[in-house]
């Protein structure tokens, strides 16, 4: 049975509800699945309700972070206490800031002569979901501007695009600190996915490790074999857990559930670093 620690639902920018995600994971032979919607824990309860024997839930969130020089970094927080006030307030602040950012991106796209509105984007947003660029991509698809989410990001919405606008994000060091204080564990997601924009250097990992980073997402479709080898070496040198995950979003992205997974020994090593056992089973 497989362990996939990085997935998304309609509570952020995925296309499957938490219930659909659990059902698909069961069908795919996944025994342990991490629910990591962007800056949100809103999908946890539905996922827990949908659990059946044969699959366990690792509750988490993918926290949007930014370095002082503007590089986007995503930190997976897993197994943290959702009643931790400081972490929850940081996630809320990040979510709220996304609306102002989206309006600025739309304004830039409008200036280029493309007809798209905030209303168009919000129509793609499920109730309670975290707003993000994928919802803008879906609106552009519906308008016929592009053919798919992937095309929208390749042509218009990547981090180096003229339409790109940064938004409030904690530093990765702060996110790691808050996750740790909330009793959870932290894993840096797809750290060398350079096609998404600028990525941090291997040397930068020192400050993340000092902040308490627990693991590195090594196996990911956006890592080349050479990048994967570099991350494995770094993880071994720094005694960090190595994970693998699909980063599944449902329709519109190529990522398949369970296409990359975490070895059981690595998962157990990661889980034992949380302050309490928070994996949910039925």
From TrEMBL:
<dbReference type="InterPro" id="IPR052018">
    <property type="entry name" value="PHP_domain"/>
</dbReference>
<feature type="domain" description="Polymerase/histidinol phosphatase N-terminal">
    <location>
        <begin position="3"/>
        <end position="67"/>
    </location>
</feature>
<protein>
    <submittedName>
        <fullName>Unannotated protein</fullName>
    </submittedName>
</protein>
<dbReference type="InterPro" id="IPR003141">
    <property type="entry name" value="Pol/His_phosphatase_N"/>
</dbReference>
<dbReference type="GO" id="GO:0035312">
    <property type="term" value="F:5'-3' DNA exonuclease activity"/>
</dbReference>
<dbReference type="GO" id="GO:0004534">
    <property type="term" value="F:5'-3' RNA exonuclease activity"/>
</dbReference>
<dbReference type="InterPro" id="IPR016195">
    <property type="entry name" value="Pol/histidinol_Pase-like"/>
</dbReference>
<dbReference type="Pfam" id="PF02811">
    <property type="entry name" value="PHP"/>
</dbReference>
<dbReference type="InterPro" id="IPR004013">
    <property type="entry name" value="PHP_dom"/>
</dbReference>
């Amino acid at each position: 049975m497989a362990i996939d620690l990085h997935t998304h639902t309609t509570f952020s920018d995925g296309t499957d509800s938490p219930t659909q995600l659990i059902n698909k994971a069961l069908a795919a032979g996944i025994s342990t699945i991490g629910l990591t919607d962007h800056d949100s824990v809103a999908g946890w309860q539905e996922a827990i309700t949908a659990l059946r024997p044969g699959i366990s839930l690792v509750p988490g969130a993918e926290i949007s972070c930014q370095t002082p020089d503007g590089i986007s970094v995503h930190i997976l927080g897993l197994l943290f206490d959702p009643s931790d006030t400081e972490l929850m307030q940081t996630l809320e602040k990040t979510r709220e800031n996304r609306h102002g950012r989206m309006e600025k991106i739309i304004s830039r796209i409008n200036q280029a002569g493309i007809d798209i509105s905030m209303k168009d984007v919000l129509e793609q947003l499920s109730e309670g979901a975290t707003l993000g660029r994928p919802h803008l991509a879906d609106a552009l698809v519906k308008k016929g501007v592009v053919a798919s989410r992937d095309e929208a990001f390749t042509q218009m919405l990547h981090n180096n695009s003229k339409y790109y606008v940064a938004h409030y994000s904690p530093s990765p060091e702060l996110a790691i600190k808050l996750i740790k204080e909330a009793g959870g564990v932290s894993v840096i997601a797809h750290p060398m996915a350079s096609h998404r924009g600028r990525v941090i250097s291997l040397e930068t990992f020192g400050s993340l490790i000092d902040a308490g980073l627990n693991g590195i997402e090594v196996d990911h479709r956006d890592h080349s074999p050479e990048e994967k080898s570099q991350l494995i070496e770094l993880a071994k040198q720094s005694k960090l857990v190595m994970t693998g995950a699909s980063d599944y979003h449902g329709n519109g992205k190529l990522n398949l559930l369970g296409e990359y997974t975490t070895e059981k020994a690595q998962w157990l090593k990661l889980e034992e670093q949380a302050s309490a056992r928070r994996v949910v089973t039925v």
